[in-house]
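pinging the channel bc i need a second pair of eyes. not urgent but kinda urgent?? the chain im working w is below, pasted from the shared doc
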Amino acid sequence: MAQTSSPQIEDRWWNLAISLSTAFTLGIVLISLYFGHSVLFTHLFYIPIVLVAYRHPDRGIYFASLLGLAYFASDMALNRPDLFSMSVGAGRIGMMIIVAWVVSFLTSTLHAGEERYRETIDASRDAIFVVDRGLIPVLFNAGFFEWCDKIGVKMPKSPWNTPIFEILPFIPPSLQAQYGWVFVSGTPYRTEERFEFGEREVHTEIHITPIEEDEEVRRVLTVVRDITLRKQAEEELRRSMDLYHTIFDTTGSATMIVEENGTIVLANRECETLFGYTAGELEGGMVLLDLVAKEDRLCIKQYNETRLAGDAAGVPRTFEARCVDAEGLSHHVLIHIGTIPQTRRTVVSVLDITARKQAERLIAIANAVRHMIVHETGKRDLMHKACRELAQLDPRIIAAIALCEEGRVVPVAISDLRYRAMHALQLSRPWVKEVVANRSPNFEAELVSQHDDGVEFIEYAFALPMIYGATVKGVLVIYLLPKALVGEQELHSLQTLANDLAFALNSMEIEGEKRMALIQIEKNMEQLAVLNDHIRNPLQAIVGTVDLEGDGLSDAIRPYVDEIDSLINELDVGWVESENIRAFLRKHYDIPGYAVDPGPE
């Protein structure tokens, strides 16, 4: 119940006033009756009657009747009035009762209004109090006492005589000063304050309202709303929002929240990095399909319409597509779409898999180049095909190969002939020569190429040595146009591929030497077959001549002739046995038979 002061103190003072006024009035009236004056001082009875009727409206009429009977009895005992005087006395008693009834009625009506006012104040869950200009409280509602008990404030025995800032000692001086300002200016004041009371932290919303009487602020109404739970909830919500914002911004993928019509309402920092637009440009100003390559838009639109129609099971949640950034460059992406429950919005997560796709292409290119290494026999043809394959890695990459010949780095192949002059110039630069000398990769930044289509800027050029054993066979040069994507892992793979090409070059050189040796062997074998015939024919002529001459010369020469013939026969047998070897060489090494001029017969 709202209290304006201590009930015990109020009752004590009221009872004292009623008792004193009743005794004083009754004494004066009795004295006046004793001296025969029954009219003048009887009006003093209205003082205690009004006090009783105001303080105790339900007892006012009884008190007036009792006081009137005491007056009438005293007048009868002291003056023995006649009938007319008795009628006048009875009229005075009736007037007292009427005045008591009127005051009681008005007071009851006033108290009823006050009770409704106090019930309204007590019904409020906020702490309410009113202070005078001395900051002494004149009213507390029930919520004030409940709030003090809740936060652990001990009320003094006599709060009505205690300044409010002694009751609430944790109120800061700055807020105390505002009370003085409200009393002076008559301007309401509102603030939120955080108090530390013992181990408790209390958050409040305080409204200070001036109460004017006779155009002067005499009292101030203060409403204290405890918002500790609200602040704690707001802090938890803030932490939760910070957590979700942190997760949203650090997922590692471009994440967006999209309306039913495709409008982007929220985009994280990865979206800015991937697509090249600022968050302000994306949010509210673009739709999801604006970021998708034209050839994939229809498919994604159909997916979204099917999902919003309620057939989420009929469309994949994750699929591959191609997106286009602010520069117009295409990216291979993995898109994951999920619907936010109880809304028509969706969460779209876009993961850039361009590097993965490029790695897959690099593996395929490496396999194709290795296949060419096995089947290609021409050194320059192999280099040209390898450059064309490497250019498939990224349309913003130019691949070139130069071979080391007689101490010089000679260009032999390039994937885009427009950059031929620039490539030849770079091969004479120190940074390329260092690659050959140090047998280690090197790079150069910010190159410029001039060709028929204009001037083009090259961000980076990487030169990779083609190493076999301890020898640098050549240099594989990768030129990167703006926005080209080649990572460290791809460079390691390209270095391995360059070494594979060096191995292929070395194998081709060894194979060429082997072929020449085998061809020479074939020539020698054929010349040996012819030589056998050339030796045997003169030998037969010698034997015939010796036989014709006779005289023992034949017997001396024939053993030598037979020995020579035996050696030639052994050569013939070896030559015949080598026919299988010759057939194998012709079949697998593409070695033709060489006709050797037999000479004159």
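so The first strand starts at residue 127 and ends at 132. and The mean pLDDT is 79. — does that match what u expected or am i reading it wrong
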